[in-house]
């Protein structure tokens, strides 16, 4: 099964302690035609990259069986970490890179588990068929912000 995931994440305030919000559209072909699921959420006291990773994990949590995923996201950190295979230089036992802690290691650990389970192609794309709609929704939907509960 092939699934397209479109993510638009925004961040306001302080770089590492601001508020993030995101929109996710999950699209897949079913026997009844194209099906979509849309999510809109917010995260308090977080960073831009962390918001993007949380959005990815939220989307992946809706995939019930292994599948081929096209992940469209406009976050260069996420796309380059996967596409340039930066994660391969990390010490995954200690979650360090060149002696320093990997940023957002808790989220990357979970992301890479999904990366192993699914065949995920990450595409850095800020202009998708859903971008305009998702940005409008993020701006106008009353998003309930939650604490960053992903910290494990």
Automatic annotation (TrEMBL):
Could you tell me the superkingdom of the organism this chain comes from? Bacteria
Annotated signal sequence is none
Q: Which GO terms describe its molecular function?
A: nucleic acid binding; RNA-DNA hybrid ribonuclease activity
Q: What is this protein called?
A: RNase H type-1 domain-containing protein
Among Pfam families, the record links this protein to:
RNase_H (PF00075)
Q: Where is the RNase H type-1 domain?
A: 17-122
